[in-house]
Amino acid sequence: MTLAEIEKLLDEQRITKEEKIRIIRKARCQLLEEIHCKQQLLDQLDYLLYEIKKD
After folding, report:
1. What is the rounded distance in angstroms from the CA atom of residue 21 to the CA atom of residue 37?
2. What are the extents of the domains in the chain?
3. Which of the four, 30, 36, 46, 54, has the lowest number of CB atoms within 10 Å?
């Protein structure tokens, strides 16, 4: 979900403050999960580089 999509959801008048907080927290959690996956991939690539250089 993009920031623009999140902002569009938050702009709706019928959404309560609690629902807005839930939407933001859910998006944050999803983004953090993506970051962790990318970090894991980066670590694996760094290890491959290490192994290649070591030989």
Report:
1. 24
2. 3-54
3. 54
